[in-house]
Amino acid sequence: MSDIAIIGGGAAGAALFGALLSRDASANVHWVTGSTPRIGRGVAYGTSHNHHLLNVRAGGMGLYPDADEGFAEYGARNHAGARPTDFLPRSLFGEYIESQLGKRIRNAEQRGRRFAIVPATALGIQASGSGYEIALDNGGTVSAGQIVLALGALPPRPLRTVSKRALGSGAYVLDPWSLTTRPAHPRRLIVIGTGLTAIDTLISASIRWPDVELVAVSRHGLPPFVHPALPIDPFPRQAELNARLLACDGPAPVLAEIRRTFREHPHVDWRGVIDGMRPVNAKLWQAFTPRQRKQFLRHARWLWESARHRLAPQPAEIIQQLRDEGRLRIHAARVLGVDGAGPLDVTVRSRDNQLVTTLQSDIVVQATGLDTAAAFAEHPLVSGLLRDGLASPDPLQLGVLAEPDGRLVNAAGQIQPGLHAIGSLLRGNLWECTAMPEIRGAADALATLLSSPCVGHDERCAVLAAS
Ligand SMILES: Cc1cc2nc3c(=O)[nH]c(=O)nc-3n(C[C@H](O)[C@H](O)[C@H](O)COP(=O)(O)OP(=O)(O)OC[C@H]3O[C@@H](n4cnc5c(N)ncnc54)[C@H](O)[C@@H]3O)c2cc1C
Taking Cα atoms as reference points, which of 21, 26, 28 lies closest to residue 5? Predict the structure, then answer.
């Protein structure tokens, strides 16, 4: 069976769907897009708030490597005064995705390319004959020889320190993007987390409720570092540095090497050095042993994430202003417990002096980042795949076990024919695979792999192998 199914209607699904449609293959492509009303935008680009900005410059964003119009050009046409070096609204990138998708769909229709967009949620996948059958929440099924999971982050799980009472109170918000639809007017709002999603949440709350008192709490109290207004020159000795990094044994020597570079080149902007590591990040991660990966996650992840996934200058200015005006406090503290029926009591232990205090808050928002713990996720499709042994969880709970090209590894430790993933489910293998520059490259490579006759359950492989 040569049909291909993509499950997930976000930007990764859109990038792959468009890449497959542009190829002249006979396979019918089914795109199972879930319940999203705006296909292709997903969580990141579905926002309608103009203050939610991209954290990649316009020139670095895109959907296909071979798009007929890049995002920077689209931005210049549709957003007054936009330059390729600007950090533009995420909603504009959402519009760009829709326009690019529309073009590929029209072109595919003219060429008679077979495809179907299926607005349903996939509940389970069963092996069936030479392929698989996907059960949908609308009672239908889709049959395919090859399936790509483009599911994005898994549903967030509440922190273990949050009581059942607090969870049931309605004052504890697990989905930060649902916050601004709340009718209540809070006096104090606490955000757990200080990463990019936390920053978006704080800015949205400050606009929606101008007199709300905002508090953000995370273990290190470190908001993301900030991009400079203009792009940084590349570090001239990056290639040498990257070669030295690849020769390091584990995260500690890698970090020591990076620090040495900063010391020896004090006039070089450190952000350029970190950005220049992009081509080797996946290789470094793959070379770490499981113990070294654990060490990295425990001791360096917080700093790496802040330095690598930086904030655009405009939101950084807003955050600074909120802090200067005393409307926002950021605490370095560990959350020991969240309890109550609303308002909630949030008990924290300060990192500086170990003092334990309890703050009351009308709303508490959990914005602790991407959840990729497949083994614990309340996601029927993923749970079913693990239960049936068609996939296996990454031992560090960073998605599922897979090859670097996205082919899933089953419970027997073998490649599961015809099952693939793209995006955050592959964190365990690739570490950095969630931003558009990585996603569009991965989608293009996967489209090439899926369009070749020798993947998955395809019976033509046996014929070719025998010839
Ligand atoms: C707030 C935010 C801002 C970001 N900003 C940037 C940025 O500026 N630049 C950048 O490069 N990257 C950014 N990123 C990274 C971002 O993750 C990627 O750019 C991209 O949006 C990921 O797309 P995705 O399709 O993998 O995931 P998602 O956008 O999460 O889409 C996955 C989709 O699959 C659906 N789905 C899940 N399960 C099923 C199922 N069983 N059946 C059917 N459908 C299902 C979900 O409902 C969802 O619609 C940002 C991420 C976030 C969260």
Answer: 28
